[in-house]
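Long-time lurker, first post. I've been practising inverse folding by hand and with some scripts of my own, and I keep getting stuck on stretches where the structure tokens seem ambiguous. Below is the full token string for one chain I'm working on. Before anyone asks, I'm not after the true native sequence, just a reasonable design that respects the backbone. If someone could post their per-position residues I'd love to compare against what I wrote down in my notebook.
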């Protein structure tokens, strides 16, 4: 497990949880499938032309969770965004704040009635510094481990994205 000095009990638990879901393939989609299975609810990535400062966020509905990211993100940046949001999930950070109008206006929720989105969808847009630092620690570990597994002969999320 990662040796970044002293870690909070929450980070230690999240790193252990990450070990349980990290796929031998090193594939990001396999990671999301494993996390979905362990949580008992689907988790998918959505990309859209985000016009805000938000680079990624987790959107939760009654039926599924979605990680939203800018469609302009490079494959490498997309992996970083997804790993960061996965880390927040593994850390159990609260994401029950009502959806902001900025998200509704972004077009990411196109096809969903704005009143429904406001009542059903929740997002995490701001955290205390400690929560973000913890998420970055866990996200860094997850992304390093995914890459290590790819280097051992797994496949890579980038193969599909660069074609």
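-- Answer (accepted) --
I ran through it position by position. Result:
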């Amino acid at each position: 497990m990662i040796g970044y000095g002293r870690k909070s009990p929450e980070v230690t638990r999240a790193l252990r949880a990450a070990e349980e879901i990290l796929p031998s393939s090193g594939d990001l989609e396999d990671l999301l499938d494993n996390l979905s299975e362990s949580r008992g609810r689907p988790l998918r990535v959505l990309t859209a032309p985000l016009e805000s400062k938000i680079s990624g966020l987790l959107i939760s509905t009654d039926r599924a969770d979605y990680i939203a990211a800018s469609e302009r993100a490079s494959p490498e940046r997309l992996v970083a965004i997804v790993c960061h949001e996965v880390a927040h999930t593994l850390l159990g950070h609260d994401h029950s704040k009502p959806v902001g109008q900025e998200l509704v206006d972004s077009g990411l929720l196109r096809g969903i009635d704005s009143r429904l989105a406001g009542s059903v969808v929740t997002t995490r847009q701001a955290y205390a510094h400690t929560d973000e630092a913890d998420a970055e620690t866990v996200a860094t570990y997850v992304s390093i481990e995914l890459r290590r597994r790819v280097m051992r002969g797994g496949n890579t999320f980038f193969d599909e994205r660069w074609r």
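A couple of notes from the structure itself: The chain is about 50% helix and 15% strand. Strands lie at 43-48, 56-60, 65-70, 97-98, 122-123. Happy to go over any region you disagree with.
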